[in-house]
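Appendix B, record 7
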Amino acid sequence: MAIALEIISPEKLLLARDVDMVVIPGTEGDIGVLPGHSELITGLRGGLVDIYEKGQVTDRFFVSGGFAEITESRCAVLADEIIRQADLDPAKAADSLAKAREAYNAVDPHNADAYREASDQLISAQAMVDSVVPHKV
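Structure tokens (predicted):
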């Protein structure tokens, strides 16, 4: 039994295929999605989407944030930004982290919306740097 996975960026549908399992970076922690999963809509934090087939990770994508819609037979990942892990550029990731830290340090902590946005960007940038570390796929 498989689950239908769709990975969608703002520009296009990047992937649509049946997989054994997908692990997504939910805002409250990683979520493993198997066939028969309870229905759920969740926000995504920056991190890796791991796609499993035959007990092995076959693909990894970095997402900067977004949402996922999960049903018993389908998982749709709607990402703000998505990049294959293999295509991540370590220099760009480090630059993004430096800029996010600068923005975070400059934000007025009394402005809740700006503070939350800067915090989310910092978390996503750190996750991108962490995702650059080579992983076997």
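Remarks on this record: The chain is about 30% helix and 40% strand. Residues 3-85 form a domain with the ATP Synthase; domain 1 fold (CATH 2.60.15.10).
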